[in-house]
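Let's practice the habit of predicting before peeking. Look at the sequence and jot down your guess about where helices and strands might fall. Then scroll down.
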Amino acid sequence: MNQPRMNVESFNLDHRTVVAPYVRLADTKQLPQGDVIVKYDVRFTQPNAAHLEMPAVHSIEHLFAEHSRNHSERVIDFSPMGCQTGFYLILQGQPEVTEVLELIEATMTDILAATEVPAANEVQCGWGANHSLTAAQEAVSVFLAGRAGWENVTA
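Done guessing? Here is the structure:
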């Protein structure tokens, strides 16, 4: 099926050809002052076949955003995909793939050890009741179990 070229990189990805879980460099941007940022597609579930429930997505977002910064000063943002199949990790500079995978693995390991979701309250979060540490840890456990294949985006 031929689709028109889109401005958003992920809209040009044939989601039928990928095999989750995976970690994929999705974009590199050089900013006007010369700084470089990279965006990684951190895919948890198979597109159009499965998705994460919102309390899991929301809690993974909070947990990763908080814990990842203990492992790297490069982290700019960790944002959920609207399709609820994964997240975008935005980093400063152009780290080696091994550095990115180690950051993700270390942070996911922290999530498994967590005893609470950071900032999961109505003072610090816009929907503080919409969290599930258990669901987040279950999803992260499955994601980590696929660690050996994270660099294999397609079958």
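How did you do? The first helix runs from residue 54 to 68.
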